[in-house]
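Support request, please re-run this one:
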Amino acid sequence: MTTWMRALGAAGLAGSAAIHFYLYWGSGYADIPVVGPLFLVNGIAGAVIAIALLAWRHWLPAFFTLGFGGVTLLAYLLSVTVGFYGVHDQFNSQYEYWGVITEAVCVICGLVLLVQGLRTRSGAPSPGE
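Re-run finished. Output below.
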């Protein structure tokens, strides 16, 4: 199950990164102060964490996956409700829908991987054993 969670988490990270890259370069976000550069950073970070999650069997990439998804969802929630550095989203585009889905996948997979890692370290049986 750990391998599948890593693969699914990496897919979530890559999907979120792709959305942020597209919006940065193909949708004018590069011209938005503060938020534009954050979209570029988010795209780069998502790609780097996805590679780490697949290549490094350690708790740290799982932690970063959880954090990436959680922080990105929080920033989006702020942009939909009160605004985020002047950007007010409305949750009405495919990019927003897919972004929320991919980031929720990151949160779930990161959390599952961290719990599995804790169970393994403590000697408790993992689910399905």
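The first helix runs from residue 2 to 26. The mean pLDDT is 91.
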